[in-house]
Amino acid sequence: MVDKQLLKEVLDLALSSGGDFADIFVEHKQATGIGLEGGKIERVHSGIDLGAGIRVLNGDATAYAYTNDLSKDGLTEAARVVSHASRGQKKEYHLDMRRVRPLVEFSIKERPDGVKPERKVEAVQAADRAARAVDGDRIKQVMVGYGDVVQKVTVANSAGEYVEDERIRTRLMVQVVAAEGTLLQTGYEAVGGLAGFELLEQFRPEAVAETAARRAVEMLKAQPAPTGKMPVVMAGEAGGTMVHEACGHGLEADLVQKKLSVYAGKKGQKVAADIVTVIDDAGMSGRYGSYRFDDEGVPARKVTLIEKGELTDYMYDRLTASREGRESNGHGRRESYQHKPIPRMGNTYIAPGKTDPEKIIKETKNGLLVRKMGGGQVNTTTGDFVFDVAEGYLIRDGEVGHMVRGATLTGNGPEVLRIVEMIGKDLGFTIGTCGKDGQGVPVSDAQPTMFIKELIVGGTSHGRPNGKIRRL
């Protein structure tokens, strides 16, 4: 997109008034989206976003400018803007542009930019038909969304590093509303990955739609959720919303350094039960939060955050890592060239254990089984959270009983991790777009089936702590 000689000139200009580090992020992103509602295709859109962001770090200060003009004049003007933020002696840099190699590789079987729009539209329509076929009388509304992104990036910096990468992601979501009398219930299911159109071979649109539709219809006969403190079994298929929200954000280094995390200053300390290990691995094959390089050109790698209950690491970008005299561990991410990178999760999960998930249920005398999580909120400073349960069942004497509706889970992230008493050998993933500081990035999260000794189960959504709602 931009030749290396021009990149060198831009970086040199950005550091012309001083500064400790400079980088440039160049992006070419082609996105396609299809939306269906009311049985009709409401929108089909495709577009290209092109631009570059230039950053200078000077101590703890960051100067950032971006432009969609990739000509020499456009890039040099942006470089002049950030150069004015630094005052001092110009340093010598070796801008040799040595190519950085990834630690992982991914393969795409069918590029979405090579798939005709008609095939994508048919996949969306097939999902709509399958959802309505589950219950033609009670299903009142079906919304289907398809999206794919082909993102090409170039990253170069004053350390002489040069990265070229391509990220291809595809996703499909289905939301169904079912009604009986005055009662309305919603079912939701989404799939996605660092993958091409072959994603819809692994997850057939009809199967995704049927799952969402059945969930909505079954919720019509669900009984009101009980309230009070009780044991909770989180099924692996529920996904890792809890670990992402109640734990993951608190392990991002910028929040830790600002003392806005309950985990600040606790590295090396016990923060969870001995059977709990938490990992973020952006190098996992095919996952929605995967990448070869982060948005600062640092290779993705597996990072163990909590190991056997002990806090071992945080997620760093270059800036937060430099404050502690260490290297980034590959978590500098941004929504686009218009945003500066900040520490973000990729694929965050609790590592599987050795217990059969069915055994966990059988050993639970009474409690709540959560098969699907909904939205939620968390206060990262305290770790307090509230989550909605999209699909839950009562457990009575080790057997799964009737479905309940309107359940919420309230607790404290670190406290919950301390009272996990059993962990299954399964692992279930969910996908989403994670919001932070006005930026959204694709993520995956996962957990095995877990027995949590006690959570507060409520039947309303009032009294939530300050935080955010996460939704794809």
TrEMBL record:
All copies of domain Metalloprotease TldD/E C-terminal, residue ranges: 227-459
Name the UniProt record assigns to this protein: TldD/PmbA family protein
Region (Disordered): 322-354
Positions of the Metalloprotease TldD/E N-terminal domain: 22-80
Native organism taxonomy: Bacteria, Bacillati, Bacillota, Clostridia, Eubacteriales
Protein species of origin: Desulfofundulus thermobenzoicus
GO cellular component terms listed in the entry, alphabetical order: cytosol
Gene Ontology biological process terms, A to Z: proteolysis
Tagged with keyword Hydrolase: yes
Pfam family of the protein (one): PmbA_TldD_2nd
Residues in Metalloprotease TldD/E central domain copies: 111-220
One term of GO molecular function: metallopeptidase activity
Keyword Cell membrane set for record: no
